[in-house]
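Homework help board

Subject: predicted structure for assignment chain

Our instructor gave us this sequence and asked us to write out the predicted structure in token form, then describe one feature. I got the tokens but I'm not sure how to describe them. Can anyone check?
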Amino acid sequence: MKKVFYLLLLLAGAGWGLQGCDDGETYAEQREKERDAISAFLNRDVVIRTSDGEELIHVGKINTISEGTFYAQDSTTNLERNEYVVFENTGVYMQIVRKGVGEKLKSGQQKRIICRYTEFNILRDSVQTTNNSAYWQTNPDIMDVTNTYGTFTASFNTSVNGGGAMYQYYGSKAVPAGWLVPLTYINIGRQVSEDEEIAKVRLIVPHSQGHSDASSNVYPCFYEITYQEMRN
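My token output:
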């Protein structure tokens, strides 16, 4: 109960004016601060913990690989080496923990996808929002996703219980662009047997690929996200 209470308090304080900046700080200076924060995050043994010290996510020291190496490895990241591929055009870093059951979303397809996530503000060095708590158990974030010739577009669905944590705290149906990057490489399905698991990724998302608050206040976030096809 202590951990759940902490997460609820943490969530209640997140979402509005989360990363205020100095009036005198230029955008270039904010960008530089963001780059430095990401670099430091990559190079230290990060352990994300709850307020009572319990380990939530062990990120570890990250080894980055190029897109060329990633594709040569059949679009996989080696977990033993804690590899993350960096996409140069967006600045997003991705680790595929599990490719998941099911199939990739094909061109012309639309799917409703359930996402459970934890968001860690790298600049503030703290958990910012999550729907991995008892409060959000029956109301996860749901994305309506379309694949158009390899380009993914999505919005958060708010017709089910008024939307999940991301919509409730940031007030926007727009899905962060960084959340869509894995869809080219993972499968979207549902677990139907004990030996199957849904897709799971870890991401480092710069402000330019993040939600509106990250974009306007120039801060990067780390995410751990699962992707699961929703029943019709």
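Reply (TA_rk): Your tokens look well-formed. For the description, you could write something like this. The first strand starts at residue 46 and ends at 49. That's the kind of observation they're looking for.
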